Amino acid sequence: MRSFNLSRFVRVFSNDLLQQWRKIWIATLAFAGIGLICYLTNVEPHSTGRPEIYVALFSAVLLGGGLVLTSTIFADLHDPLQSARYLTLPCSNLERFVSRYLLTGPLYYLYVLIGYAVFDWAAAQISDATMGTRAAAFAPLSPRMQEVTLWYFWFHALMFAGAIYFRSYALIKTALSGVLIATGVALMYLISLRLIFWSHFTTFLPNESAARIDLFFLPTWASITAELLLYGWLLFIAYQCLREHEVQREL
After folding, report:
1. From CA 122, how far away is CA 128, in angstroms rounded?
2. How many beta carbons lie within 10 A of that of residue 235, not counting itself?
3. Digit-coded pLDDT (tens) for 74-101
4. What phi-psi label fits residue 159: left (phi over 0), alpha (psi between -120 and 50 degrees) or beta?
5. Please, which residues have CB within 8 angstroms of residue 7's CB and are 6 or more apart in sequence?
6. CA atoms within 13 Å, Cβ hemisphere of 108
7. Could you count the other beta carbons within 10 Å of the beta carbon of residue 187?
8. C-alpha distances in angstroms, 102 versus 19, 106, 251?
9. N or C: which end of the chain has fewer CB atoms below 10 A?
10. CB 36 within 8 A of CB 126
């Protein structure tokens, strides 16, 4: 079977979308109801102040909903009752990988972005009619929202790999693994800094030093390149895990 075929990929993507669509629209309706309650209860009647409610609501939907969806996107791979159908579906690993990455990554972000913009407009109209005021308008291009978007794609890549690797409780196990990795990296950074600049410190406290330490920081372009390479490496690891799972199933 060829690695990637466009017509076959379209069928695989349509199949994946149909499988997830019921969960998505039910979750969308639930959020609309809960979000409207949160919107109206956080707006003061006839007040001139406009709280930025979208910061919390949009972040919760994007990060919370997206990571939950991503953690279950490969549930059929690990389910004994669904694995036979998963393996006999006429598609390659690459097609399946790209389909589910797009569904839980860029397309999910666009869905939340458009959906929240519609929700924010509708909630503002209801708030104006009932309370005489509204919250601050949704600003998806604000620096804070751009930062939330970048964090989502980082967490998504990690959760996507965890959904493939872990057979059960992928959300919890991936979150714990991420915390352990972050803790390990932080400890290695502190230990390395202390060993390299041993003579500069007078105590074992992290902020106590006898002399100034000039640290080297990468230029912006180098930092962005390194982040993109790390992101691509995470997706590559996820793809390799998917290939290994198929081999193990066939054996």
Report:
1. 10
2. 16
3. 988 877 766 666 666 778 888 999 999 9
4. alpha
5. none
6. 30
7. 10
8. 14, 6, 29
9. C
10. yes
The residue extents of the domains of the chain are 6-168+216-250
Alpha helices in the chain (DSSP H): 6-41, 53-59, 66-71, 75-78, 83-88, 93-104, 106-131, 143-165, 170-196, 220-250
What type of residue is 139?
A
One-letter amino acid for residue 104 of the chain: T
What letter does residue 80 receive in the DSSP assignment? T
CA dihedral 78, 68, 98, 76 (to 10 degrees): 20
- Could you read off the pLDDT of 150-182 as tens digits, one per residue? 999 999 999 999 999 998 889 999 999 989 998
- Specify the amino acid at residue 182: A
DSSP assignment of 154-168, as one string?
A: HHHHHHHHHHHH-SS
Report the distance separating Cα 13 and Cα 92, nearest Å.
12
Cα separation, 87 vs 74, whole angstroms: 12
Separation of first and last alpha carbons in the chain: 19
The closest of 222, 63, 75 to 162, measured between CA atoms, is 75
